[in-house]
Specification:
Helices cover 34% and strands 18% of the residues. It is α+β, with helices and mostly antiparallel strands. Helix 2 packs across helix 5. It is globular and about 80 Å long.
Length: 705
């Protein structure tokens, strides 16, 4: 008997030793994947894809995507994402656009639990996993002979590291949703291949994009390390870091007078090993500047590597970059002028849709790694202002560029650096207007925002750091199942309600973000006020929770102004920026060219208004805030806008368009008499920026003397 017991114990010990310790994360108390040594611990842990569902208007937004371009792009754009795509084994497009589409389609499919969408995404996954080379190479097979070029199709370079990085994200999400172990096997082989090949074929040996965007590559390397513990992944991470564009240095370079004459200079910088003289003069402030989407993706890179380096200067460097983007190129939505190089803060300058998608993902990544709520504040500002306006309500068309002040969208609009390549189509609404990258990359934004509404905490709790109508189901405490239904009219309303369902009573922390703009926030539990202290903008409610508990967070929103280009002023409330309500009409135009049919948009009401200086000193008295009747349906147009501001504007007929753009001119009066004010005064309506198509967001200011 005793001999049998000891044999059993010995067998169990040997069996436990035979299982590599690396199969478990270091934070053994956490229910979800966390960093293992030597990577720095992170304060928030990502939940499996599909754990968080959208409700209300946010679910409507996702379903519009499923019914629009996201769910039908292979039918609408078959020449690129159809069966000829190289990521399906075809002889056609083999670069970034196919993976871009799946990077949004796949999370949308699993969040909606939509079998039709899953079936559209699955062939891309299956082909990629089934056709991995013996070497470990993943992706479209290189051509033996250079193929005939076809306009609008990027057949190569097929071995470029950059498009692989997008598919790495896709495979990571697929594993998070399904647990398919083939992903772990394939990524391990691929990263072994990458470690072997990078010394002779650096990230940028075929194009510059991989060295600018390698934070995406590094992120997945560390994710895999947390699952397998394979030491070679840390070595690979250091090699990727060495070959990556030195974003942290560039963010912290001193301002200097050096200026590039060439608008597209960023294409001509020396590749790895980088030229120290060139790198020393690069700053965010330059105009023309660095590529807008590269900058958006680069914002995550120092903090992804921080997990290994633990460099205390990484976070300040990224925050300085965000501050410089706002100062030199910023617009009220939280985004910045970049069309495609960084282009300054004139409110008629374009913001590329891809840069919105990528900055959102960078901010989500940084938020999990650092727990710094400034990233969450900025993320909500971008999501609830810039994101919804750049795609049509039916998600069938999009703008390549948007601007804070846009009052005509025509093929005559020429404010961007892209004046010839896109033949005037940068601001119109279309499927292929401007540049097609955004047609495929736009889809990741809303699904990944949903995926980041809730997090787990390492001590088995839950965190709500972004607010929108949603439901999460997860494990907390000692294996208790928690479901939270979040009901809210945020960002249009101040109240956020959380209803908790638990399989049994459990003690765990519940983190709630307090936005920096919220003054005198309140929390109630089952109707009773809760005393709390928000440390670093986070209130932590640590208690024994019961099934049926209800938490209400109230975030008071105050009207305020912000000052932008040449002293122009915007009006804000909470996370929302407000714009002049401009009635419009659309006209379809088809030039029978590669840009396909598109829609121009023209104003049907006056747009040329200023605000009076003394009026702005007391917004609470001079602005009527109207909360319109709203049942929580889709809000992002003039008809459904849940909130309006009514106030007096100063009509400026002198302010006219120049080639469709509302450029400020010298003849706009800056000082007027009281009598002139009375003559020019008109009641105007402002609505949330995200509800507009045409708009004035930055208003000139006139003084009355």
């Amino acid at each position: 008997m005793y001999k049998s017991v000891w044999l059993f114990v010995l067998w169990a010990v040997l069996l436990s030793c035979s299982k590599p310790e690396q199969k478990k994360p270091d934070a053994l108390n956490a229910h979800y994947l966390s960093n293992r040594s030597p990577l720095a611990a992170t304060p928030y842990l990502e939940l499996p894809l599909g754990s968080i569902k959208a409700n209300g208007w946010l679910e409507d937004q996702l379903r519009r995507m499923a019914d629009g371009l996201t769910g039908h792009l292979d039918e609408i754009y078959p020449e690129v994402v159809g069966p000829r795509n190289g990521w399906l084994g075809g002889d056609g497009d083999g670069w970034e656009r196919g993976p871009y589409w799946i990077d949004g389609l796949l999370p949308l499919a699993y969040i909606l639990d939509d079998e039709r969408l899953k079936q559209k995404a699955r062939p891309w996954i299956e082909w990629t996993l089934a056709n991995q080379a013996e070497s470990g190479y993943l992706g479209p097979s290189p051509f033996e002979t250079e193929p005939e070029p076809e306009r609008g199709i990027q057949k190569g370079p097929r071995e470029d590291w950059w498009p692989k990085m997008v598919m790495l994200k896709v495979l990571q999400q697929y594993y998070q949703a399904t647990g398919d172990e083939r992903v772990i096997t394939a990524l391990t082989k691929y990263f072994q291949y990458q470690l072997k090949m990078l010394p002779e074929k650096p990230l940028d040996h075929l194009s510059l994009w991989a060295n600018r965007r390698a934070g995406d590559n590094l992120m997945v390397v560390y994710w895999l390390y947390n699952i397998t513990g394979d030491a070679f992944l840390l070595e690979l991470g250091d090699l990727i870091q060495e070959q990556t564009f030195p974003w942290q240095k560039i963010y912290t370079n001193a301002e200097n007078p050096f200026q590039f004459d060439d608008t597209w200079f960023y294409n001509k910088l020396k590749r790895y090993p980088f030229d120290s003289t060139e790198m020393a003069v690069l700053t965010i402030s330059k105009i023309p500047g660095l590529h807008t989407v590269n900058v958006a993706q680069g914002l995550k890179q120092p903090l992804v590597y921080y997990q290994k380096s633990k460099d205390s200067q990484a976070l300040p460097a990224v925050k300085k970059a965000l501050g410089d983007l706002k100062q030199y190129h910023g617009q009220p939505t939280g985004m910045y002028g970049g069309d495609e190089p960084l282009h300054g803060n004139n409110p008629v300058q374009g913001i590329e849709l891809c840069s919105i998608a990528e900055e959102m993902f960078s901010l989500e990544t940084n938020l999990k790694i650092t727990g710094d709520m400034e990233f969450a504040d900025l993320l909500e500002r971008i999501t609830y202002n810039a994101l919804p306006t750049q795609a049509s309500d039916d998600y069938r068309t999009r703008q390549y560029f948007q601007a804070a002040n846009q009052v005509e969208l025509t093929d005559q609009l020429e404010t961007s650096f892209e004046k010839t390549n896109h033949e005037g189509t940068d601001f119109v609404f279309g499927v292929l207007s401007g540049y097609p990258c955004c047609t495929t990359n736009m889809h990741q934004s809303w699904p990944k925002f949903v995926q980041n509404l809730f997090y787990a905490t390492p001590d088995r709790g839950v965190a709500a750091l972004l607010y929108a109508p949603s439901t999460v189901q997860m494990t907390v405490a000692d294996g208790v199942t928690l479901k939270i239904v979040e009901t809210t009219g945020f960002p249009f309303r101040e109240r956020v309600d959380f209803a908790l369902e638990l399989t049994k009573e459990a003690e765990f922390p519940f983190h709630l973000r307090i936005p920096a703009w919220a003054k005198d926030p309140k929390i109630t539990l089952n109707g009773q006020a809760v005393d709390f202290v928000a440390t670093n903008q986070v209130a932590v409610l640590n208690r024994t929770w019961k099934n049926g508990d209800k938490v209400t967070l109230t975030l008071p929103m105050e009207l305020k102004t912000s000052t932008w280009y040449k002293g122009m002023v915007s009006i804000e409330r909470g996370p929302l920026v407000f714009s002049l309500k401009v009635e419009s009409e659309e006209r379809q135009k088809d030039r029978k060219d590669r840009f396909r049919a598109f829609w121009e948009v023209f104003p049907k009401s006056d747009w040329n208004y200023a605000l009076e200086e003394s009026f702005l000193r007391n917004l609470s008295e001079n602005v009527a805030l109207i909360e319109r009747e709203w049942n929580g349906d889709y809000p992002w147009n003039l008809e459904n806008a849940p909130i309006e501001l009514r106030l007096n504007g100063v009509h400026l007929p002198e302010w006219r368009t120049v080639k469709s753009a509302p450029e400020l001119s010298e003849n706009i009066p800056q000082v007027i008499s009281p009598a002139e004010l009375e003559r020019r005064k008109r009641e105007i309506t402002l609505v949330p920026y995200g509800c507009t198509t045409l708009r004035i967001t930055e208003f000139p200011v006139v003084r009355v003397e």
